[in-house]
Amino acid sequence: MAVKKIKRGYRKTRYILYKETLIDFNEQFWSFLGSFVGIGLLAYFQSIHFSGNDAVYLIGSFGASSVLVYGIIQSPFSQPRNLVGGHLVSAFIGVTVQKLAPDIIWIAAPLAVSLAIILMQITKTLHPPGGATALIAVIGSDKIKDLGYMYVVSPVLVGVLILLFTALIFNNMTPSRSYPSHNMYHKHIHKIRKRLIRK
Question: Which of 55, 71, 99, 127 has minimal CB crowding within 10 Å?
Answer without folding.
Answer: 99
